[in-house]
Design brief:
- This protein has one domain: Heme oxygenase-like (Heme Oxygenase, Chain A), CATH 1.20.910.10.
- It is built from ten helices and no strands.
Length: 218
């Protein structure tokens, strides 16, 4: 009698990456990012992206504070990843000391921040979904933007600090993060909820880029 077929185990980090591959590609290939990498955007248009990030990361990092003592969510709180101080410095570089009074969220950013505040403060899985979507992307593809800013616009220090992470090894950190995803005590239903919320987070990022493209005429 043949042995029963056992489904191969897929680590949660792999499932999350594969489930979001298509929407990640849509964000990467958006009109705004295409114009940015094609050197067709002026620096003020890029500064608008930085402004949107400030609103988004402020919400995520407040959620980090809310989960600092949580046995599950707390494992994904990393002070070394915090981006708000770097974003503030970048905005001061682009807009001057009064930058805080000169930035406004685009409509999609308002919706995105509202979603973070709805699901990421009281639900550890929701927090991880939004944390993963932004920070893992910054540690990977975001470094290409850092190189672009240096090559095309001559911006390497202030103005590009958002992409400077105080990590000994980015690949090692990403591996550690994936391990935390795989080891978290979520059952299959909760993992699926997190995948779904991660897809929602990616869609908000696509929408923010679409609003910025329209604003810039890209």
């Amino acid at each position: 009698m043949a042995a029963p077929v056992t489904a191969a185990y897929t680590p949660f980090s792999t499932k999350l990456r594969e489930s979001t591959r298509d929407v990640h590609e849509r964000a990467h290939n958006s009109a705004f990012m295409d114009a940015l990498f094609g050197s067709r955007l002026a620096l003020p248009a890029y500064a608008s992206l930085v402004a949107q990030y400030h609103f988004i990361y402020q919400a995520i990092e407040e959620a980090s504070d809310a989960h600092a003592g949580d046995p599950v969510g707390g494992a994904f709180v990393f002070d070394e990843l915090r981006r708000v101080p770097a974003l503030a410095a970048d905005l001061e570089f682009f807009l001057g000391p009064g930058w805080a009074g000169r930035i406004e969220p685009v409509p999609a950013t308002l919706d995105y921040v509202r979603r973070i505040r709805t699901v990421a403060f009281d639900w550890p899985g929701g927090y991880v979904a939004h944390h993963y979507t932004r920070y893992l992307g910054d540690l990977a593809g975001g470094q290409a933007v850092r190189g672009l800013l240096a090559r095309t616009y001559g911006v390497e220090g202030p103005g590009a600090l958002f992409y400077h992470f105080d990590l000994e090894s980015v690949p090692a950190f990403r591996k550690r993060y994936r391990g935390l995803l795989d080891e978290a005590p979520w059952d299959e239903a909760e993992r699926q909820r997190i995948v779904t919320e991660t897809l929602v987070a990616f869609e908000f990022n696509v929408a923010v880029l679409a609003d910025l493209a329209a604003e810039a005429g890209a």
